[in-house]
Amino acid sequence: MVKVPWDRLAAESPKVSEALVTMLVLRLRERARAVDGSGGDGGRDLFEDAEDGELVVYEAKSFTGRMTAVRRRQVVGSLVSAARHQPDHWDLLVPIDHNPAELLWFEGLREQFPFIRHWRGRSWLDEKFAAHPDLVRYALQESGDYILDRVAEARAERDVLLGGVPDYLERASALHARAQEISPHYALHTTLGADGQTVVHLTPKGAAPDGQTAVRFTGRVRFPAGDEQETARRRQFEETMRFGGEVELTADNLAETRLAGPAELGLERLTLAGVRITSPRQEVTPPLRGQVIVQQPSGLPVASLSVAFTHRVLGTDGGTLYGSDMTGLMRVQARFHRRDLSGQLKFSFVPPETAMPTALVPVLRLIAESQPSRFMTLVFAGDSSDGLRAPITTGMTPPGWEEGEARFWADAYNDLARLQSRTSQYFPVPDDFTRQDVREVKEVHALLDGEEIVLRGETVSVEVISAEGLDQLADIRGGTFRLTAGYESMIFTIGDHQIDLGPCTETYTMDKILNMKEARRELAEQGHAKVIMRLAERFPAVRYLGDERPE
Fold first, then answer.
1. Closest Cα partner for 255 from 275, 238, 237, 281?
2. Helix, strand, coil shares of the chain as percentages rounded to 5?
3. pTM listed for this prediction
4. What is the pLDDT of residues 215-255, one digit of tens each?
5. Which 8-state DSSP code applies to residue 326?
6. Which candidate, 194, 327, 336, 446, has a CA 20 to 30 Å from the CA of 81?
7. pLDDT tens profile 405-441
8. DSSP 232-280
């Protein structure tokens, strides 16, 4: 059975993932309608006017993994938008099978949004797509533009082509086949742009065309001076020509330019509203492996990361290699210049939905150590040269992160990885891993090292079930009272995971009872009472593993 690659679509083309779900609903629900979201859908990008007159709103999300706090806020935002239309029902369609905590959160939203109906997760979606494999093939074989265009077509079919779709499909298929026949050198297909214009895609069928088979510009491409946007476009155009990449030119840029190519295409007769130039991506087989190293000016390495380059694009002066580290968390672009053998490295950090702590540490170390005044070197495997070396001009701290935050989390995930190794329990970093959790992990390490830790707090509560016990506590006025509590097992909870640390002992020293009168009254009325005592400042409460106090 062909399955939808939810994780890949969410990472590379979230709009395509949502578009596929939209197409499924349009297939399953005859009265469903899709609204063009580009003009502001107001929370009704996919809805159904049911036969009984009820309004049903469907919300498609591309999320995979877990429903994090950020994603939950997005869902609530969608609910707020949908509420303006007073729907009778609202369904969430997302490729995540909820866990008990997520279901509890989702059902709790009904207090504010009573129209919430279903959470349709990955299992439900996979079951429905299994009956419609043609939709799945869009995700596996076609471009993102193609899939989004199919949604637009489905919308048009519902709106204006009732009864005429079979004829339209037959004619469109014949026209598409004819378009491929007229050009032996290029594959053609069309889409509709954001403004309704027709976009023609020309893709070489074989090796890069040359001579009379190439698409050529004659004349001059111009970029108006004094315009920051045009200055940036010019820079991108020059870089695309020299090193490969992608650039879009407008009609103003092409006013003095003539487009030419194979005669059968008739490009000379076109009036261009714009052109997108994209360098063909060439697969690097086998991947080109290397090491990215952060160095002090003296050459001393302070951090490194293994990378592999899988694709490249070429230009007149050199090219650009595209790759990532072994986990895919850090993406790398290496631009190389053939003439002077120089290079330039660009990095982008992609925060993961879920990852093991050991996978995050090397990437965060590289981010933390990549500081201006240091150098970055790329050394390829098997290359005896010194590699590409360049000064670091800009720090790599991700947007929204504070200075030093990458180092903090690198240390935190390293501590979590060591704890997993010590306890032989391995799990991804919890979605809600906080700074408080970081402190508690450090404390667990101290306990495992045989140390005692100081417990936070200023008071301790003791449950008393007899007047004799309460009298014994009352006798400690003016002195101190030590309480030792032993536990058969100390359970450390982090996220959805629990780690059993074995027997544990806690010792408290109190010097004052804070609620004796209230405790006596409570004991008389209820047969038990809670006594609140102040911890002695000179003797802090401590916890340690085992029965014997460490030296």
1. 275
2. 35, 30, 35
3. 0.56
4. 777 788 889 888 899 999 999 999 998 999 999 998 888 88
5. T
6. 194
7. 999 999 999 999 999 999 999 999 998 899 999 999 9
8. HHHHHHHHHHHH--EEEEETTTTTEEEEE--GGG-GGG---SEEEEEPP
